[in-house]
Amino acid sequence: MSEIRVEGHTGLLMIISAPSGAGKTSICRKIMQMFPNLHFSVSHTTRPPRPGEVDGKDYVFLSEAEFRERIARGEFVEWVENYGQLYGTSKKTMDAFLEQGYDLLLDLEPRGARTIREQYPRGVFIFILPPSLSELKARLAKRGESDAVMENRLRTSLDEIKEALWYDYIIFNERLGEAVDRFRAVYIAEKSRRTRCMERIESFFQ
Q1: pTM over 0.90
Q2: In what order do the strands lie in the sheet with 60-61?
Q3: Which terminus of the chain faces fewer neighbouring Cβ atoms within 10 Å, N or C?
Q4: Contact 161, 130 (CB under 8 A)
Q5: 3-state class of 83 per DSSP?
Q6: In a domain, 2, yes or no
C-alpha cells in the first residue's frame, strides 16, 4: 500500500522520537518501504559521515562554521547540539514538501520535536518505547560500548522517556512487526481525520 500525493492539499507531517535502543530506525525503514511516497526528512549535521553514509541521503554534512551561518540566517526550523555535534532541519525544504502535498516523516529528539510542535501544531507526534527498562538496558548493552558510554546513554534515554507524556501516540516496540502495524495504523487513521479532509469534503458542495 502506498500513499498517493494529492495536488493542492497540504501534506501530513509526522515526527517520531525514541530513546537509544528502542528500535526507531528499524520501524522507520519498514514504514518507508510500505509507503514509497512518504518522504523522510534529511537532517543537516556537523558530525563526520560514518562508513557507508551518503551526503544528501543520510544527512547533509556541513562544517560547524557553515551550520552556524545557517542558524544566523534562520534556515533551520529546529536545531540542537548532541554530544558536541549540531543537528538541524531545513525549514525551506520541509515546507516545500508539505506545500506540494507530500507527507513527511521527521526523526527528532524531544527538544527538536517540541520546537516543531510550536510551529506546526497539526503535526502528528509519535514516541517509540522499548517494552521495559530491563529490555532497554539489554539492548544498549548489545552495542558493545564502554560502561561509561552505556550509562550516559541510559541517563539520556530516561530523560527522553519523560518527554513521551506530551506526544500524541505511544508505540511499545516489543515485537517489530506489531510495532510497525501500529505505526501504519496511526498513519492511515491520521490521513482520514476530518480536519485534514475538509477541502475534499467541501468540493462536493461546490
Answers
A1: no
A2: 60-61, 44-45, 85-90, 76-82
A3: C
A4: no
A5: coil
A6: no
